[in-house]
Amino acid sequence: MPPWSDFEPFIVSGLALGGVYALSGVGLVVLYRATGVLYLAFGAVGALGALTAWSLGQVGAPGWVTWLTCIAVAAAVTLAYGVIFGPALSKRDPLVKAVATIGLTLILYGLMDLLWTTSGGEARSLTLPTDNGGFSIGQIQVNWTQVIALAAGVVITAGTGAFLRFTKLGTAMRAMANDREITATLGVPVRKVEAAAWLGCGVLAGIAGLLLADLVALDATTLTFLVISSLAAVLIGRLHSITVTFAAAIVVGLLHDLLTPINSLTNYRDMTPFVLAAVALLVMPRRQVMAQSREEA
Amino acid sequence: MRAHIPALKALKVPSAIQARRTRRTIVLAAAIAIAAAGCSSSSSSSTTSTTSTPASTATSSASTSAVNTSQCGTKPGVAATGTPIALGAIVTNQPGTSFTDIPNMANAYFACVNANGGINGHPIKLYIETEQTNPAQIAADAKQLVDTDHVVGIIGNTSIIECSVDSSYWQKLGYYIIDSGIAPECYSTPNSAAVNMGPRYSSDGAVQYALAQHVNKIVFDQSNVPGTGYIAAGPDALAKAANVPIVQLTENVPISDADSVAIKEVDDAGPDGAVVLNFTPPEALVILQAAQKLGLEDRVKLWGCSTPCNTDFLAQSLGPKWNSKLFVNAELLPPDVTNTPTMSLYKAILKQYGSAVSGGIGSFSQMGFTEAEIAVHALEGITGAYTVASVNAAFKGVSNFNTGMLCQLWSYGDYPMHIPNNMDSTVTPDNGKMVTAQGCTLISSVDPQVAAYRTAAGTAAMAPAS
Amino acid sequence: MRDTITRAAPSRVRQKPSRPQLTRAAIITVLLLFTLFALPQILSLYYVDTMTQVAVYSMVTLALGVLVGRVGLVSLGQVAVLAIGAWVAARLLFATTQPYPLILLEAGLITMAAGVLIGLPALRLRGLYLALITLMFAGAITVVLATVNFPNGGHGFTGYNGSLVHIPPIRRPAAAGTDPAYFRYSVIVAILMFLLVFAHIKTRPGRAWAAIRQSEPAALAAGINTWFYKLWAFALASFITGVAGGVLAGAVHYLYSIDFPTQDSITLLAVTLMGGVYSMWGAVVAAFLYQFLPALLNNWGVSADWLIILFGLGVLQVLTTAPAGLVDQVPKDLARLGRLLRRPRKTK
After folding, report:
1. Where do the structural domains in chain A lie, given as residue ranges?
2. Would you say B101 and B128 are in contact if contact means Cβ atoms under 8 Å apart?
3. Closest Cα partner for A46 from A76, A17, A18, A16?
4. Do C265 and C135 form a contact (C-beta atoms < 8 A)?
5. Which of B360, B361, B461, C257 is an S-S bond match for C145, by CB 3.0 to 4.6 Å?
6. Are B55 and B312 in contact (CB under 8 A)?
7. Which residues of A touch C131 (CB under 8 A)?
8. Of residues A186, A203, A183, the one with CA closest to residue A194
9. Where is C54: in which H helix or E strand?
10. CB B263: neighbour CB atoms within 10 A?
């Protein structure tokens, strides 16, 4: 086992990685609570927005325009998907709704590779102005982007949790996610609430996409399938508790990086999210819910 | 996902059916729209990129516009109209890894030759098969080229695993291929000779340079794609011969956590050590940028990288902190500082015929140019029919050819293995461009494979270009 | 075959096969004979190699179709199971000189054991959770494979020698070394797997699965041991996929961990849904989508990205409008087209 001082820098980088997982993970849980859909295309729409922002930056658009475009693109695609396919699938069980978002993921993934081809020597990268400042913890420099990512995770966790619980719109969203038809009969403007939920989630995906493109890599494959690793935190939170998801994401990131200096395990450290999720799901007690699709009623 | 029970359908509100029909129409319309868009845009495997080309194309010297590309052929201005000579290439093209620039540049060279006399009046037709690192697909592609397209020679192959999958097939049929190698078999079999050095020997060059700067430890980190053990054996031998400890690491690509990778490399190397990378440009960039963001770039004596890092694009993306800090092995002569007629011709052909080459000036297009150059030189020496036997005998017979792009003269020859490019230079970024840090240097014979080749090929292996 | 789902308690009396059933059986036999004997002669080697892949993956989509269509379990990790089967087969092929059918059987059984080991804890979950946990297992297996690598003739448990300068190919059966011969071999193995699934569907497991798909609480109430039959489905799917992995090893000669990425399981699910999960023919359609179309497009110089987009659209279409997939939709659409074409004549 390496000495403790070897682990120190990895604590910092692990927290940063945890922030990355938290952004996606919390976003996914918030979406699930608000719409009833596990939005697996979260990473793909974020990547689409980030690549659009990159292209605009290449032709000289100022930074803030590119960031707004990133968020707008992600929000638009998400809203379109939600409004078109939300009602159609509302009565199906959550598994079907999640698989449908896989369809959207594939469409976006193919589109991105077509529009932003991989050419041999070119490597795209997205940088934010907050990359250039920071402070040191021990021997490691932390830049402001990483701080923003972590802070964004905290704000989203606290903010959306409170929004969903205490505001009228949030409550309407939760009701709709649970049962659309009954909510409609109660007089809630279902289409508007649905649109608001999807729009909000699209904005979240855009913000996350921008930050992740900077922190991880501006690469369609990496960003689209990063959602698979983030699912670990989502599963540990049982698709319900945003706070637990956030905490789980931090733990996953920390553990992943802390394994790096251990030579016998370092090649397997990418397994961390999957192993933790499997252990958590199988060991922790959970409510026995038999998913009954509405069709059987 | 259950089939709707018919009885319930009758109870549904009509608007739901209407909505469903609308959705189906939307899905279909979207499909048609995308298909229409696809049909209108280029549908070839080398799709034109909407991203901007690297700025390095703007730095090409003014003389390119004055260079007459017609010197590529034997009869300037005369288009070739005879029966085509069919050649083939297999190239990896998948999200994240695309080598299509190499055969596309070879095709550009052939287009120039075809417009200026061809090969004794015969145009060259290059069939390019793309693959996604799937062995079944690669084997099928080879059969497509031979059985259906009836190619008489293979030039321009660039694939992560093609050499492993097809080498016994080429041996059986008697094809002597000219390629840009990656897999071990590209260098260790009689039927493949590469214009580049490949990951192992290029990493040798980078490690050799680091050892020459008297570092006291080497960390060699590479992407976890097929052949890591084979690649690592070269740097291992070099480090052991110099009595310098070496740490071998691999990373799964694509890298999603570059921070931990950079920290581990720096920690393992120590302040007087060197970190040498062997990754594709996007992955190497991600690691180096992470090192910079973490403030780690000065924590080791120097950083090294194998040839894929040798692009101006990388130099620009990295910024000035890496000037004389990152040393990249250059398998081919650096285009920005080599002002020979061949280099000017390369830039001119790229400009005039190379619209499908999205990477612009850089080692990939240079490799494609060099391979085409060798092939044309060989084909021009053939008298009589262009058959599998005559073309491949000509390829194999190339000897001491000055390509103008390499440190050495290039030979194929009748040897059990081929490493014809075993001499390289080292470049370093300098404010957005790659400049020479060390001129042409032989790769050390301490690498057993290099030693074996030099024994087999005799002194021809060492001949530097004049 | 869809009748199995809605039938409540099928009678044990064996009925004489009806005329349409006999015709269907005859057509299937003719098609199979054509595929086995005539097809390799007609097609170029490029397409023979492609069709071998279709045969291999039709077994994988068959296994996935059993899980999704018959039992209602979604697995997002089928490609990882295929990788396990291929790994075991490759290790045995290099280490022993056993005959090929024995190795395929062993690969299937060991993969089945692995599938049961995963299924034992995983089947305590349902629906979306089950799907996601299979994805997590697949992700973990993929990482392990990337480090351990596929056997390439080396020694030791992993059979991987990283420093090889010449990698030996994985052997094929002595009688089926050429590409057309191996194509026939893989078609025969595929037929055997389809027959295995057919036998399951027509007997007790098939009825239990139908009951579980209809309504799991009702099945439980009827006294069916749902957990056992779900595990059986997992075991069957893993066995078939393991055998497919063995056939794949011989087909490709060289195995690499980068050929089995986690996201391929997602694409596999997409094509299986598109092909149709309620019919065994859907598995064949899905395999064509997954292997034949890309090869065709590659030949025409069209980017494979269009296919990915098509698969995404296909998933959305299947889930919203055509749950039974192409196998059900295309005949219906053709029938509708036929009616449209016939109508003008009627009104005259």
Report:
1. 4-117+138-280
2. no
3. A76
4. yes
5. C257
6. yes
7. 95, 98-99
8. A183
9. helix C45-65
10. 26
Would the CA dihedral through C307, C312, C313, C314 be positive or negative?
A: positive
How confident is the prediction for chain A on average, in pLDDT?
87
Distance of CA B133 to the CA centre of its chain: 15
* Cα A282 from Cα B205, distance rounded (Å): 50
**Three state DSSP letters for B327-340:** EEEECCCCCCCCCC
Chain A nearest-CA distance from C287, in A, is: 18
> What is the DSSP annotation of A102-162?
HHHHHHHHHHHHHHS---TT-------GGGG-EEEETTEEEEHHHHHHHHHHHHHHHHHHH
Boundary of a domain, candidates B382, B397, B421 = B421
Q: Which of A271, A275, A290 to mutate to test the interface with C (most CBs of C within 10 A)?
A: A271
C309 touches chain B (CB under 8 A): yes
Whether residue B55 is contained in a domain is answered as no
Q: Which residues on neighbouring strands pair with residue B441, listed in sequence order?
A: B424
CA distances from A138 to A4, A8, A17, A134, C334 (A): 13, 8, 18, 13, 70
Q: Enumerate residues 6+ apart whose C-beta is below 8 A from A206.
A: A45, A46, A49, A70, A71, A72, A73, A74, A75
**How many Å lie between the alpha carbon of A64 and the closest alpha carbon of chain C?**
31
C156 or B179: whose pLDDT is higher? B179
Domain that holds residue B157: 64-197+334-421
Percent of the residues in chain B that have a pLDDT greater than 70, as a whole number: 84
Counting every residue written for chain B, the total comes to 466
Is residue B452 a contact partner of residue B353, using CB atoms and an 8 Å limit? no
- A239 part of contact set with chain C, CB < 8 Å: yes
Tokens of A172: 């309407």
Per-residue pLDDT, B8 = 35
In a domain, B427, yes or no: no
- Residue B264: pLDDT band (50, 70, 90) is very high
> Does residue A1 surpass a pLDDT of 60?
yes
**Alpha carbon distance C109, C121 (integer Å):** 19
The pLDDT of residue A121: 55
Residue with tokens 């009969």: A185
Closest to B247 measured CA to CA, from B206, B275, B205, B224: B275
Q: Does residue B38 have a pLDDT over 50?
A: no
CB pairs under 8 A between B and C: 131
Mutate which: B39, B50, B259, B369, vs A, most A CBs within 10 A: B259
What is the reported pLDDT for B21?
Answer: 52
Indicate the SS3 state at residue B223: strand
The rounded Cα B59 to chain-centroid distance in angstroms is 22
Separation CA A125–CA A160 (nearest Å): 30
- Per residue in B59-88, pLDDT (tens digit) is 344 444 457 888 888 888 888 898 999 999
Task: Report the CATH fold assignment for A4-117+138-280.
Answer: ABC transporter involved in vitamin B12 uptake, BtuC (1.10.3470)
| pLDDT value for B288 | 94
Domain boundary among B277, B311, B330: B330
DSSP for C226-266 reads: HHHHHHHHHHHHHHHHHHHHHHHHHHHS---GGGS-HHHHH
> What tokens were used for B204?
């040798």
**Residues of A with CB below 8 A from B284's CB?**
123
Are residues C164 and B229, on separate chains, in Cβ contact within 8 Å?
Answer: yes
Query: What does pTM read for this prediction?
Result: 0.86
Tell me the C-alpha distance between B426 and C331, whole Å: 64
* Residue A85 with chain C: CB contacts under 8 Å: 316, 320
Whether this model's ipTM surpasses 0.85 comes out as yes
Confidence of residue A79 (pLDDT cuts 50, 70, 90): very high
Contact residues, chain A, for C306 at CB < 8 Å: 110, 114
Answer yes or no: do B105 and B135 share one domain: yes
